[in-house]
Amino acid sequence: MPQTPADAAARRAVAPVICYPNDTLPRPDLALYRAARQGAEKIAEVIVPPREAACFRVASGQVFRITSVDGPQVGDLNLWNAADLSERFYSGKTRALHGTHVTTGERLWSSFPHLRPMATIIEDTLGWYGIDEYGGSVHDVIGTRCDPYTGNLLSGVQYHHCCHSNLTRALAAELGVQRAEAERHVHDVLNVFMCTGFTRDTGQYFMKASPVRPGDYLEFFAEIDLLGALSACPGGDCSSEHTSDAAACFPLKVEVFAPKAGSLAAWRSPARNGYDQSHGD
To answer: What are the mean pLDDT values of the chain's consecutive 10-residue runs (281 residues total)?
Structure first.
C-alpha cells in the first residue's frame, strides 16, 4: 500500500490547465450554415433498423440530420472522407479540442495527417441537457462503441449485433467488400443521443437512460464529401445495457438536405492541415 506523502493535499490542490485551448480554432459560420439550411431541399432518407446499421452519403455543403423516430434510441456514428477512407473521424482529437461531449457549434475532426473539420453541428434539440449532477451529458466522444471482442473478453459470448459488427456489415455492403476488409475502417464513434460520463469515485465510464424522445435530432453541416455509417445500438436508450437482445430498441432516421444553388457562394471546404509532415531532422 503506497504511503501518503506529507504534501499530498498541496499536490492535489494544483489548479488544472486546459491542454488545448480552443479560442484560436477557426470558427464555423453558423449563421451562413443555418441560412443555407432554411431553403434546403431534402434529397435522401435512410432508416436505420433497430440493432442494425446503415450507410449514407453527404456531399460537402449539404446537411444531414439524425432523428429519433419511434422511441428513445442511441446511435453510433462513423464518418469517412467519401473519396479516401483513410481520412476518418478522430474522436480522440475531437474530445481534446471540444470536451467529452459535443453540441451546437462544435465540430467533428478528421484523423492525421488531415486534421480538419469533417462536419459541424448546427442544431441539437438536446442542447438543453447540459451536464447533470452525476457529470453526465449527451453526444459523447469518450465511448469506443460496443463490440464483440470486449463482449467475448468479459462474458465469453459471441454476439454479432453490437455496434462494431453492425457498422462492419453496413460498410462491407456499401463498398462491396468482404467484412474483414471493411472492419479495418470501423473506428471510434460519436455516440449520438447517448448520455454518459465518468464516475467521481472510480473514474469509470458510465451510461444512463438517454433523454432523447421521438422528434429530437442532431443536425450537421458537411464540411467535406462524407460517407457515413450509423448503428442503432442494441442497448436502446442505454438505461441498463448497451449490448442486449432484451432492451427496447427503435429505428433512427438519417435525412440529407441540399441547399439552394448560390446559398453558400462565400464558403469553401476546409483544406487539409498545413503541417509540412517533415517531423524534424
So the answer is: 93 96 94 96 98 98 98 98 98 97 98 98 98 97 94 91 96 98 98 97 96 98 98 94 84 98 94 96 81
Contacts of 62 (CB under 8 A, 6+ apart): 40, 43, 221, 222, 256, 257, 258, 259
> How many Cβ atoms are within 10 Å of 7's Cβ, its own excluded?
9
3-state secondary structure the chain: CCCCCCCHHHHHCCCCCCCCCCCCCCCCCHHHHHHHHHCCEEEEEEEECCCCEEEEEECCCCEEEEEECCCCCCEEEEEEECCEEEEEECHHHHHHHHCCECCCCCEEEECCCCCCEEEEEEEECCCCCCCCCCCCEEEECCCCCCCHHHHHHHHCCCCCCCHHHHHHHHHHHHHCCCHHHHHCCCCCCEEEEEEEEECCCCCCEEEECCCCCCCCEEEEEECCCEEEEEEECCCCCCCCCCCCCCCCCCCEEEEEEECCCCCCCCCCCCCCCCCCCCCCC
Measure the CA–CA gap between 140 and 263, rounded to whole angstroms.
Answer: 31
φ and ψ of 8, to 5 deg: -60, -45
The cell 479495418 sits on which residue?
Answer: 184
Q: What is the pLDDT of residue 1?
A: 80
This prediction has a pTM of 0.96
Query: Among 145, 106, 173, 135, which residue's Cα sits nearest to residue 243?
Result: 145
